[in-house]
Amino acid sequence: MARASNLPLQVPSIKRDFPIFERTIHDKPLVYLDSAATSQKPRAVIDAEADFYGRYNANVHRAIYELGEEATREYEGARERIAGFVRAKSPNEIVFTKSTTEAINLVAYGIGVKGRIREGDEIVGTVLEHHSNHVPWHFVKEHRGAVLKYVDIDDDGRLRMEAYDELLTKRTKIVTVAHASNVLGTINDVREIAKRAHEVGAVCVVDAAQSVPHLPVDVQALGCDYLAFSGHKMLGPTGIGVLYGREDVLAETEPLLGGGEMIREVHLGTSTWTDVPFRFEGGTPNIAGAIGLGAAVDYLAKLGMDAVRRHEIELTAYALEALGGLDGVRVYGPRDAKARSGVVSFTMEAAHPHDIASILDVEGVCIRSGHHCAQPLMERLNVPATARASFYVYNDIEDTDRLVAGLRKVHEVFA
Ligand SMILES: Cc1ncc(COP(=O)(O)O)c(C=O)c1O
């Protein structure tokens, strides 16, 4: 069983990098266990954004003057570091978006609604997706008559990989999957799924919102075609996300936003587009956000993503055991901490998830309750909602102990 002293990350010193941990909640030290929704921000990220606005604020790519060149250098420097962080072949494979949601919509529009999908073509997803990896494909169904199919999970919350044997056909054009589930924590075998997709000539689109922040991700090793993630879940600012796309598939993807920055030539009535990735970044981008995300990536790289992953495995294993020992608590997802990310969803017989979250709030512990933007998965699990604790680099054993103590209080109140 993990102890605070032998966790891979030095949490007390990490906590000092995050100004938010200087405050209290209901006069108690803040225990933040909702990083799957959004992470807290280290001073380095806050300062990087402030530094842009305070010292070299100018628009990117167009200005001839020094200030504009500095802004462009920092913006493009962030793209390069993010490319390195996910092991992309080139920064040209990194498109800045607003979020994972926008990145997936870009793909669904660019190869689905406006692309090569024909009536009866098939898109294979899974039952454990976040709404942002369901709804964009509903658009493709509506606009192009695509057929949607879904891989189910087993009782342990793992994808039934054998289902791909049946579901993948010559008509499959897109296979999409979350790398890690935001409810069950399950880490899916993207490498195998991408391989299977390619065998039938389909592209593989990965929702990595819950993996890139938490484990080493190598897009070339995974072999996927597109991969989406959000800055705000990985210590970065809100309003900035990333679409990774292999350069050849991006070249065949239609842009979502038309406007400035993304064009080569515009005439009355017609236009042509500039190169990848800029053709997907119409309009003034979120310059400060990209620079902030660059600082977040530097911070995570310094901790080391292998250490981040080991840290979360230790914390999750500890939490699974502690919650498993509580009366009337049911935990969802794989039992094995190595098969999941640092997300632990649970229900209590005696109390609704919202009541659990409210009582924990009074104890200074922030957790999530609800359907977690995964209503199809809630239907599959046959529950209206769950409570969810999620861990990150600033959490330790003591935080889990505070969670467990809070849950004992919930039990006292409701049982
Ligand atoms: C698995 C998964 N996909 C997509 C998203 C959407 O991310 P965003 O709201 O940053 O677009 C989330 C957010 O919770 C998520 O957990």
What would you say this structure looks like, in words?
This protein is α/β, with parallel strands linked by helices. It has two domains: 4-32 and 304-414, Aspartate Aminotransferase, domain 1 (Alpha-Beta Complex); 46-301, Aspartate Aminotransferase, domain 2 (3-Layer(aba) Sandwich). The chain contains 14 helices and 17 strands. The strands form five sheets. Strands 4-10-9-8-7-5-6 form a seven-stranded mixed sheet, with helices on both faces. Strands 13-14-17-16 form a four-stranded antiparallel sheet, with helices on one face. A two-stranded antiparallel sheet has the order 1-2. Helix 4 (100-113) runs parallel beside helix 5 (135-144). The two termini are 29 Å apart. The mean pLDDT is 96. Bound molecules: pyridoxal-5'-phosphate. Residues 36-37, 99-101, 130, 132-133, 178, 182, 207, 209-210, 230, 373 line the site of pyridoxal-5'-phosphate.
